[in-house]
Amino acid sequence: MNKFWTIVVLLSASALITPAYSFYNFTDSAQTSCIDPVICRLDSMSLAMFTRDKLFVNDAALASSINMPYDAIPKYTEDEIKEKLKLIPSIIPMNYNPAVKQFIDFFAYRRRGLMSSCLANSQIYFPVIEEILDKKGIPLELKYLPIVESAFNPVAVSPAGATGLWQLMYYTGTQYGLNINSYIDERRDPVKATEAAADFLKKLYDFYGDWQLVLAAYNSGPGTVNKAIARAGGVKNFWAIAPYLPAETRSYVPTYIALAYVMNYYQDYKLVSAEPKRELYAVDTVMITAKVSLKHISDVLSIPVEELQFLNPGLKAGIIPYTEKGYGLNLPINYFALFVSKQAAIMNDTTQIIQNAMPVMTASTKTIWYKVKSHETLAKIAARYNLTESSIKRWNRLKNSYVYAGESLKLVITTYNSAPSASYAQAFSNKVLEKPKTDSLKNQGQTSLANTEIATKPDTIADTISTANVKDTNVIQLDKSCNCIYHVVQPGDTLWSIAKHYEGETIDKLKADNKELQNRPIKVGDIVKILLQ
I need a surface site. Which of 108, 124, 173, 239 has the fewest CB within 10 A? Predict the structure, then answer.
């Protein structure tokens, strides 16, 4: 059971319930201009939620707070603000300077609608974020970072592709174990994304030893911060390197400090928190072991599809893909008994039968240590294992491409496997496979396809036969529609070595039958078609 979703289930959009006429409290047109890159990004994300979900209510107290005249909002001197900043329990320095003051005024006086929605969302996300940050041993005040990044919008996507509460890029997400594909994006999952972001922040702190530099690196990347440090003469201080940082990163730390301040002292500025539109309710996690659409589940359980999507933000296409271990779907806890009683019907989504019948390709990695031989080059080693020189250099922290005999290199090898789905295996359990002309596969230590017969020419996709009983991952499928075998390229494969596996094959014949491989070398994961004679 997902502990976070058991406590509360809300997307940040549900808290954006500011009256339509008062999302911003501008007194003149000049104030509506986008004055800062971070503010521009926050405005676009919060307005996207506001427009998409249309969560407006006529709450008089909330409207009065947001639309409060400037003169009626309490004002504080610089000394008072400095003292308030000191009282915030924070390991991260809460410095005061004109830039921080500017952003405090901006959020406390001119973005009151945004702050009201963030206050509501903090009730939802702070408990889970604080728990994870505490578990990882990093400052709890980093819980304010998702406000700077996404205004608490778990499905926010930046123009650069950063996604979720923590605005993680694709490479960063996958590097820290998040599943991202055409159906699932775990950067949108509040719990998993927070786990990944916390690990990333901890790694940055291990490198810099300064949390303000960590914030800068989180925004613009370590490379940008390192260059700024070098240009500043090697000093590791955010305020010293700020002139050498991009505009957005220069304002990133002041924005963070200002938001932390306003979130702590919102009542002093007569700010009122918005209230969620949906009620809070507990959920349970059920395992889905087939490819099923949310619409199908909605129809079977009579639960709005919008609620299912709302409870499962990581599903970005409205479809639960087939996975070997199953997918954990969040359902309101009062639907659990109904799910159990109708589980068979839920798993039988007829709109997904064809997709369920296709084999699922999975990748696995293993690390080996390779001892460099005399006269070997990095390029030669990379080609042998279908790797790139840059990857080998990164794994071994090499500054150049020079390697010497006897040196041990760390290599991460990826292999690909065909894992037919359960419905696929069941559908074709009584089918037979076509036998290649020779037992060359068996002679090479592979499972032979002997004692099988050729079926009639297929009329549908259901007549494409999977070699589910073939243990070797090189042969993933025999397709009777083309009388051919599909060979998945493995590390170390070449067209010459593949041709040796199959009688009558030559390099030229392989290229002729696989036109996409004529003008480039093969790489791991390529599918090579072998026509049977």
Answer: 239
